[in-house]
Amino acid sequence: MNQLQSMRVFVKVADLGSFVGAAGALDLSTAVVTRHVADLEARLGTRLLNRTTRRLSLTESGATYLERVRHILADLEGVEQMVVARNHEPVGTLRIVAPVVFGLHSLAPVVQSYAARYPDVVPDVTLADRHVDLVEEGFDVGILVARHMRSASIVTRRLTTGYMTVCATPAYLAQHGTPTRPEDLLRHSCLSRPAEQGGGEERVFKGPDREVRVRPTNAIAANNAEMLRQFTLLGMGVAILPSYLIGRDLTAGRLVRLLDGYTLPPIEITIAYPSRLHLPAKVRTFIDHLVEHFQPESASARDSRSAAQLRATVEASGSDDPTAREMTDHALESGGTTRRVTRAPRTRMAVSSQF
């Protein structure tokens, strides 16, 4: 019979002073309770209980055994409760792996807000531009480009989509001309990954009328997207970089977006974790936090809220301007937007530093 169960039965018999009472409390038959105690005595080679027709009493060995068994069962219950708590309450070290540039430019705010929400979790972040085996290397969560995942036992969940942008400095373009078609890249100094990391691969541009395939030749290679950005800012050539990485450079005019009429294939960014079975709370809550951070509310919901705020402002001001009220009513009726100029969606999510 199960030794731990026999120990629990013995404690209950000793506490109640009755096999029948213990059987009722444990929802077992009296015969099974008697068997558990007898098995313990046989295992120990000593009598634990003195039995008479009227009462039960502990032997000296039984009293010593009972005291120690209580501690053992209490310790076991404490361990079980601790494990259950770790699975249901976010606690412990959370090992995260992500590409280098993604981590440097996009991960820190997520980790900071998560740590503030769950102070009992200690994030342990590793940045790596290589193939990662989550199971072998003991990571809880990976934020990875699909081709950088390795392991048949991992579970993946789409997080967002990243986009690549062709760019160069105004000074470079003034000196060398502005490419207007993908084929023009063949006449420019291109900055990309080394050949062994995919640099020099054929690029597939989707244009307004057709697909265009070109294979730019590297003038300079680097194994890190941030280094390629620095080379680009120094006017050393044309690069294809993640939009999130160069967003501020484009806004400030340090870099110019090229080939606006063409798009490169998007990059799917995924969350990966070892298993759905008994997923620890620290992993589950971090995944939810990532999704919340990188998948903002829909544009319609955002615009509806903005229009409602506009109406509240107009009403609060006491304005009788019919034009303002008409604009506000039109915004609410049309889904909330008062803007007449449409812009290309901006990507909030970082992409892998490999491209």
From TrEMBL:
Keywords: DNA-binding, Transcription, Transcription regulation
Transmembrane segments: none
Bias-annotated ranges (Basic and acidic residues): 322-332
Domain HTH lysR-type: 1-59
PROSITE patterns, alphabetized: HTH_LYSR (PS50931)
InterPro entries with a match to the protein in the record: LysR-type_TF_proteobact-type, LysR_HTH_N, LysR_subst-bd, WH-like_DNA-bd_sf, WH_DNA-bd_sf
SUPFAM superfamilies: Periplasmic binding protein-like II (SSF53850), Winged helix' DNA-binding domain (SSF46785)
Region (Disordered): 297-355
UniProt-listed Pfam families: HTH_1, LysR_substrate
Family: Belongs to the LysR transcriptional regulatory family.
Name the record gives this protein: LysR family transcriptional regulator
Annotated organism of origin: Paraburkholderia podalyriae
